[in-house]
Amino acid sequence: MPATIFLSIGLIVVTVTVHFCVFRQISIALLRWSCPCYCGLTLAVGSITLAHVAKAAVFSLAFWWGDATLEIGTFGKAQDMS
Q1: What is the DSSP code (8-state) at residue 80?
Q2: pTM assigned to the model
């Protein structure tokens, strides 16, 4: 149980940190470059999408690690009902 709680807290911290860093860097870059509206919007949406892909990879690795090492769950097939 403590391992599950610490893993969850760690994932939340990683998620918030990634969001903060990406939003902050995009805001600074767009203000510095004076991008036109559509170009800036495209850059922002693309960067946020890449950040979400990176977070999804972190979550999938954490879930795999939790299953393989910590044995806090399984991705095995459920038993058939009779």
Answers
A1: P
A2: 0.71
